[in-house]
Amino acid sequence: MSKRKAIGVDLGGTNLRVALISEEGEILQKIKEPSSGDIMSSLKAAVERLISDDVVGIGIGVAGIIDRENQGVITSPNLPSISGKSFRELGFKLPLVVENDASAAAFGERWMGTGKDFKNFVLMTLGTGIGGGIVYKGELLGVAAEVGHMSIVDNGEKCPCGNYGCLELYAAARAMVGTVTKALEGGADSMLRECCKGNIYKITPEDIYEAAFEGDNLAREVLKDAGKYLGVGIANLINIMSPEAVILTGGLIGAWDIYVEEAIREASRRTFKGLFEGVKIVPSSLGDDAGILGAAALVLHEKNPAV
Ligand SMILES: [Zn+2]
Predict the structure, then answer these.
(1) Which domain holds residue 10?
(2) Is the pTM of the predicted complex or chain greater than 0.85?
């Protein structure tokens, strides 16, 4: 029986997850804490708690644009304190692989999740923003895959990435919450007004889909609008990549019946018929564990992503 193990790290804008993972893809131990404060020190401490003699390397999935060669981060809008840093600074004497967090999640799905059934797929992480990872011919494609920053609206809102009208400004959680808040400020009638002890600035995406499932018109409209934009983005990906699957993950898939169904409808209207018939739009099976599994897989498979 093989004893090789790896440390898989998922460093996102909200949480730091670090896990000890076996070669068979079993999560043996897991640490989760907020990714705030001195992130590099927290990461080092968490890895040190889990490391053992049979660990053959450390895989790190991190939100941002990755410098694979220098095992670091070029820029991370959600984790500005690590922009420009290299994880080599941590001083571990083990092989280190650094990958974008959504790309790592895509590789995790390929290894142990929904992606097992597909050689070519795009994974989209739907949360505060939208991330992406692309698996092609069974391997992780070493490209930026910043699907949330494809331009969707000409002269649209300004995005923190520097562009205007990016997909995630219209199709992700921040957009949903922003639209609801604005509508309530303008006097819209909705059960969400009673939410959060009347503080409309505390409304979360979960509050919005709970209200939507109870039939609230404002909540339903906001989810459908966001879904429509998501569908435009998915259609672009299908027409360019002709994947076998688009795998969706992240908190927002909790609103699948309204939000994602609308996206699927919109995507079907905008894609080449033959391509749409060849693609499955499906939820991830690993959820939050995809990132740590994928990061560990990049080490255990002794392979850097194809460039
Ligand atoms: Zn952008």
Answers:
(1) 5-113+287-300
(2) yes
